Amino acid sequence: MHKKSFRFAVVATSLTLIANLWNALPGNCAYEGPSPAALQAATSANAFGLALYQRISDSQPGQNCFISPLSVALCLNMAACGSAGATRTAMHKSLHLPGTTFDSASAFNALLKDLQTNDGEIELNIADAMFVNSKIPLKTQYVKGIGAAFQSNIQNENFHNSGRVLGKINKWCSDKTRGHITGIVNGVNPNDSALLLNAIYFKGQWQEPFPEESTKPGIFAQPGHHPLRVQYMKQDDGFDYLAEKDFQAIRLPYKFARFDSLIFLPRKGLKLDSFRKQFTPANWNKWGDKLSYHANGHLELPRFHVDFSESLNQSLTALGMGIAFTNQANFSRMHIAGPGLKLTEVIHKTTLDVDEKGTVATAMTFTNVGATSGAPSPDEPFRMIVDRPFIYAIRDSQTGAILFIGSICKPENLR
After folding, report:
1. Where are the alpha helices (DSSP H) in 222-330?
2. Cα 124 to chain centroid, rounded
3. Which of 12, 93, 120, 374 has the most C-beta neighbours closer than 10 Å?
4. CA separation (Å) from 45 to 53, 94, 132, 146, 382?
5. 3-state secondary structure of 402
6. What are phi and psi of 381, to 5 degrees?
7. pTM: predicted TM-score of the whole model, two decimal places
8. If you write DSSP's letter for every residue of 194-253 in order, what string do you get?
9. Which residue from 30, 26, 28, 75 is spatially nearest to 48, judged by alpha carbons?
């Protein structure tokens, strides 16, 4: 049986400023905390994202790996909502959802609403889109449901006019990531059924900016490679800090304190690829909770840029989602009777800029459905010199959702 395919694109960008996709909440609307549904969506996205981070890193040790768990989870959950049978079972298990009857659309809708912010210091833009081939119609119920639940912009397009559709898709990517990611796909197949996209743009300013006059050049060690020359930002202040046997960690809040960056530096002599294996959901939650001890100290952190791009097909297959890429895939809740559908490609791109003022991060995920065949003494200020590979994450402290996480092994100088 000849199957149709669909592709997914996930684009993530991390910046020191965050842009908001939805209407701002009323300024006098008191925040009462995340709902149970939003917390469950964040928990599932984190568990899936940490597993994906480990799988990608295992395939390319010693290299930069920077992903947006939330971006990939949102895009794949849009597809999972259209799955059935063994495909649904595999996707829900891989995505760490409670079960095949779990209403992931409602849960992620709750999380998206909870992440809305009307704070002028932060820009958080989470955008979903679906480009549907007008020649291969999908079920109206699915399209409407996805549009409402994931705040998705749905467009019907003539995929035979591939150049025009490609231009629209890549313009959407560029617009949603403020020009940090200008393209996610190189072409459009006329037989593709739908292209699902998610983009996250984050830009936030530090609560306590690094003094620019203190930034000095220095050496960043790369085990087994020549050291890099980078610019080190320096700050002496009080920080939320954690010291354990194998690592130091620090929390850098943004002006809108709900969001923060967490930096984990393995002890000297411990390779990052060994240390990162400790990043289980349980440890992530435990270390995040322990990062509340306020200590005085000295921090040196590179000012850097990272670009990351990866096809996720192999990693997702290894995580148990392989059936979705085969002719045995069942997406019957998505399409009208006719040739079946399967996933053909899931692409993820991210960028990250960190400087004295804050952070800019973007992520883009693309999915294609197409034709188939411990703490120091208060009297002893700590020193944390981030001069070797480290782990960098951006988190929403209310829901616990990991917006971005990755290994920074080769920090590039900001352009």
Report:
1. 272-275, 281-290, 313-316
2. 12
3. 12
4. 12, 10, 26, 18, 33
5. strand
6. -60, 140
7. 0.89
8. EEEEEEEEEEEEBSSPPPGGG-EEEEE--TTSPPEEEEEEEEEEEEEEEE-SSEEEEEEE
9. 75
- 73 SS3 class: helix
CA distances from 3 to 72, 185, 328 (A): 24, 21, 9
Which two tokens mark 202? 């984050």
Run of H or E including 144: helix 140-149
Q: What does the pLDDT profile of the chain (415 residues) look like in tens digits?
A: 556 665 545 555 443 322 222 222 333 355 678 999 999 999 999 999 999 999 999 999 999 999 999 999 999 999 999 999 999 999 999 999 998 889 999 999 999 999 986 566 788 888 888 888 888 778 899 989 999 999 888 888 998 998 998 899 889 888 888 888 887 888 888 888 888 888 898 889 999 999 999 999 999 998 878 899 999 999 999 999 999 999 999 999 998 778 999 999 999 999 999 999 999 999 999 999 999 888 999 999 999 999 999 999 999 999 999 999 998 999 999 887 656 788 888 889 999 999 999 988 888 777 776 545 455 555 688 999 999 999 999 999 999 999 999 999 999 887 6
CB within 8 Å of 184: residues ≥ 6 apart: 9, 11, 169, 170, 173, 197, 347, 349, 364, 366
* Residue 118, CA distances (Å) to 18, 23, 81, 128 in order: 10, 8, 30, 20
**H or E element at residue 54:** helix 36-59
Token pair in block for residue 284: 């992530």
Residue 100 has a CB neighbour count (10 Å cut-off) of: 15
- The torsion of the CA quartet 278, 112, 396, 362, rounded to 10 degrees, works out to 80
Separation CA 220–CA 217 (nearest Å):
10
For helices 69-80 and 36-59, what crossing angle results, to 10°?
Answer: 110
Residues 407 and 64: their CA atoms lie apart, in Å, by 5
* DSSP H or E segment with residue 370: strand 358-372
Specify the residue for token string 């059935």. Answer: 84
Q: For the residues of 146-161, what is the DSSP string, one character each?
A: HHHHTTEEEEEE-TTS
Tell which residue, 119, 110, 142, 130, has the closest CA to residue 199.
130
Q: Which amino acid is at 382?
A: F
